[in-house]
Amino acid sequence: MTAKRRASSGMDVKADFPILRRKARGKALVYLDSAATSQKPKSVIAAIEDYYSRYNANVHRAVYELGEESTRAYEGAREKVAKFIGARDAREVVFTRGTTESLNAVAYSWGIKGPLQNGDEIVTTVMEHHSNAIPWYFVQDHKGVKLKWVDIDDEGRLRMEQYDDLITKRTKIVTVTHVSNVLGTINDVKEIAERAHAVGAICVVDGAQSAPHMPVNVADLGVDFYTVSGHKMCGPTGSGVLWGRHDLLQKMEPFLGGGEMIREVHKGWAKWNDVPYKFEAGTPNIEGAIGLGAAVDYLTKLGMGNVRRHEEEITRYALDGMHGIDGVVTFGPDDVKARGGVVSFNVGDVHAHDVASILDVEGIAIRSGHHCAQPLMERLDVPATSRASFYIYNGKDDVDRLVAAIRKVKEVFA
Amino acid sequence: MPDLRELYQEVILDHSKKPRNYRKLEPADRHAEGNNPLCGDRLTLYVRLDGDRIADVGFEGQGCAISKASASLMTDAMKGKTLREVEGLFDAFHGLVTGAPGGDRKALGKLAVFAGVSEFPARVKCAILPWHTLKAALEEKDTVTME
Questions:
Q1: Do A25 and B17 touch (CB under 8 A)?
Q2: How would you write chain B as a 3-class SS string?
Q3: What is the pTM of this model?
C-alpha cells in the first residue's frame, strides 16, 4: 500500500478484508456491489469461527457453562446493536434474518393480525425495494387497505409536498426507505415521521441502505419501526434487526410461533414471552447475532461519521468521473450530501446486462437489472440500470478502474 | 479464463446493433411474448407459416445485446425450416449455450458464435429467451417468462 493511495482515499481498510485479495476473471477484484451484500472483515469471520470453536450452545435455556457463555454473547450483541442505532432500550431490538423479514413481521403483526381495517390507508413511495412493498400488498389484499404512493422528482428526490394530500385521517401507516437502493436518495424520515404522527399513524422505515453507511439514531429520528440489514453492514448473511418502540412491540401480536417466544403453554392456549423474545421464535441465528455484534465493533471503531464522510468523497469522485464520459447517465441527486454511495447509471443505449458483463471481465463487480424495485424502473421509464455501490473498502483507485471499464463498454459498442 | 471476445464477438455485436428481421409481421399465424423479468429483456415474436414450414419470422422488443443478437440470428436461421428442423435447432442451441455435449452443432451454422455464452452462465437466459419465445409461439402459447 503506497502512501499515495492512503492519501487519496482517507479510509484504508482493504487489508482487513481477506476476500479483496482475490482475483476476479484474472484481474484484481473491484467489488462495487455492497448494496447487495457487504464483504466481511477478518474480525467478523474470526468471531464466528471462535463461537463454533469455543462456546457454541443454544441460548436462554441451558443450565451449563457453555450455554451461559453463548447467551451472554448473544445478548451482548443485542446491546451492541441497540447502542449502534441509538435505541434507548435493548429490549427494542429484535434479531431477524434481515430487513425483508423485519418488514414482513411489522406488516403481518400490525397490518394483517393487527388493528388495520378495510378503508384504512398506507402511504408509501415509488422508490421502495420490493421488501418494503410486497408485505404491504399482502395487507392490501387481505384487509382491503388502500395503498398510496408518493412520487419522485426528476432528480430522484421524494416530492415531500405530496404528503400534504396523501396523508389523511384514515392513514394508519406511513412507510419509506431511509436511503434508496437505486437512486441513493436520502429521505427526510424525521419529517415524514412527524407527518405520520400528526394523524396518529405509525412510521415504518427501511434502513437497509442507511444503517451501514451513516450514523443512525432511531430515538432522534422519531420513527416507530426501523429495519437493519446485518449482512449489508459487514455482518453475516441471515442477520438483521427489527427495531421497534417498546410500547408498540408490546401491543403487537407475534409473527412466528414456537419455542422461546412463549412463557407458558397449555393445551390450546399459551402466554407470550416478553418483548423482544416474543418475536424471536425458535433457535435464533446465534452465529449471525455474534457476527453482527463483531461488525458493530468494527464499524464503531472506524466511526460512522468517518464512514459517511469517506462515502461522500468517493461518490463525488465517481459521479464526476462518470459524468466525464459522453452518454453516461446517472440517477439520483447530484449533491452528495443528499445521497448515499449507491450510483445507478446507464451507458447510452447499451443494456445494463451488457455493461455488467463487460465490467465483469475487467474484474469489476456491479449489479444490473431492476434491483428489486420494478415500480421505480417503470417510473424512471427504463428497462434496467447498472448499479455501482461503494463502501468503506472502496477507494479512488476502484473508481478509476470503474470509469476506465465504462469507457471500454463504449468502445465495444461503438 | 473467459475472454470478453468470447461473448461479444463481431458477429454478435453486428447483429445486436443491426438486428435482422426486426419488424412486426402483419398478419401473423403465430405470435408470442417472451420476457426475462430478472433483467428487463422482453420481445414479441411473429411467425408466418406455409404448411409445416416457417415462411417468415420477425421480432420486436428491447433487450441486451446477447438476446437481440440471438433473436436476429435465430430468425435468419429459421426461415424455410420445417417445424421438425426447428426443434432440432432448438435442442442444439440449448446444448451449445449451456455447455452440454451433443446436439447437431454443424446444423447451427452461424449460431455457433454463441458458444462463448456457456462461460457466462448468468447470460444463458438472455441467449435462449428468443428461442423459448419461438417455441411458445409455435405451440400457440401467448407468453413465456424466464425463471
A1: no
A2: CCCHHHHCCHHHHHHHHCCCCCCCCCCCCEEEEEEECCCCEEEEEEEEEECCEEEEEEEEEECCHHHHHHHHHHHHHHCCCEHHHHHHHHHHHHHHHHCCCCCCHHHHHHHHHHHHHHHCHHHHHHHHHHHHHHHHHHCCCCEEECC
A3: 0.93
